[in-house]
From TrEMBL:
InterPro entries: SAM35. Pfam families: SAM35. It comes from Pichia sorbitophila (strain ATCC MYA-4447 / BCRC 22081 / CBS 7064 / NBRC 10061 / NRRL Y-12695) (Hybrid yeast). This is Piso0_005024 protein.
Length: 337
């Protein structure tokens, strides 16, 4: 009888054969846990899929909806509901739900060519065409499609929301929310496979990968190029990688100091501007462009309230208007439930 070579035997002893059950039909499997927008009369000709980083559950009048964890993605969700007369996405069975022509999916940021989310996939069933819009393309579309040229104040505030406020969210992630290697927090903020996070070494690799990609969001690294004297690439020798994984942050002390300085500067500007933005968005007469600005601003407030408690960004909302601001933000999304 032939003897099994020791090397092969060791491999099979370490990884014994297992019997696996049949693989379910992929179409049935993907429909069991779908996230669908609701609407009264689905448009069979045009459909869209919004790809987001991660979602969280929020209860409105005993209805559990799923909202993105990113300010820009939440704003896109609300604007899509506002413009298309949709209700906020909920779990559904796609093939069995007549109101599920439009949907939301959770994807890893690596699914996007520019590592930025959300992405919007628009399908025209009649013409058999599909268009994929990047995060930047979505912002340009919103600005061009909502009469901002006729309202210079709305245009100015919209630009500030797209740049300064989102930059604050990026800096909050880099300086306060992510540095402590909290895997549970990573799962809440990013769509990740649980298996790599169960190992300390691979969890650190994932954290570093996230650190590297966040400065690319919203053209942050381009806008503040003077801060980035060091490379943020992913190519390292094993020795360099081992050394990097043993430090709290993959960025140099100089860059972390620069982040903190910029964060403090933008926070100070934000504190001065909050009352003005709130006064503008809460006025009774809501024009087309003002409605969009209000949804963007309230999206930012909700995400900060949900995920940035105790941070300097959350503290910047403190003041006489905090309670009414947060109340108005949540009330603004209730109409889409």
């Amino acid at each position: 009888m032939l003897q099994i070579p020791p090397l092969v035997k060791n491999v099979f002893d370490s990884f014994p054969l297992r019997k696996y059950g049949p693989v379910l039909n992929s179409s049935d499997q993907s429909n069991e846990d779908c996230i669908c927008f609701g609407q009264a009369s689905p448009n069979a000709e045009n459909q869209f899929i919004l790809a987001v980083n991660q979602t969280f559950e929020y209860s409105i009048n005993d209805k559990v909806v799923l909202l993105p964890v990113d300010p820009h993605a939440l704003a896109c969700t609300l604007i899509l509901c506002h413009k298309n007369k949709l209700t906020l996405p909920r779990k559904c069975i796609k093939n069995k739900d007549a109101k599920s022509a439009n949907s939301m999916i959770k994807v890893n940021y690596h699914a996007s060519p520019d590592k930025m989310l959300p992405m919007l996939v628009e399908n025209n069933i009649k013409l058999q065409t599909r268009e994929v819009r990047s995060s930047e393309s979505i912002k340009r579309l919103i600005q061009s499609d909502n009469s901002f040229e006729n309202d210079p104040i709305a245009k100015l505030i919209n630009q500030m929301l797209d740049t300064e406020l989102y930059d604050l969210w990026i800096l909050c992630l880099l300086t306060e929310l992510l540095p402590n290697h909290d895997n549970e927090k990573l799962r809440r903020l990013f769509y990740l496979d649980d298996s790599p996070l169960s190992n300390d070494y691979t969890a650190k690799l994932i954290t570093r990968s996230i650190y590297n990609v966040i400065p690319c969001w919203n053209n942050f690294q381009v806008r503040y190029s003077e801060l980035f004297h060091e490379s943020l690439g992913d190519k390292f020798s094993w020795k360099e990688l081992s050394e990097l994984l043993n430090v709290e942050s993959p960025f140099s002390r100089e860059l972390r100091t620069s982040f903190s300085g910029l964060y403090s500067e933008l926070l100070a500007n934000f504190k001065r501007k909050i009352p003005l933005i709130y006064k503008y968005t809460s006025s009774q007469e809501l024009t087309k462009s003002k409605s969009i600005v209000a949804l963007k601003f309230y999206s930012f407030v909700i995400i900060v309230d949900q995920f940035a408690a105790g941070t300097n960004l959350s503290k910047s909302l403190e003041g006489p208007i905090r309670e009414t601001l947060i109340k108005d933000a949540y009330e603004a999304i209730q109409k889409y439930a």
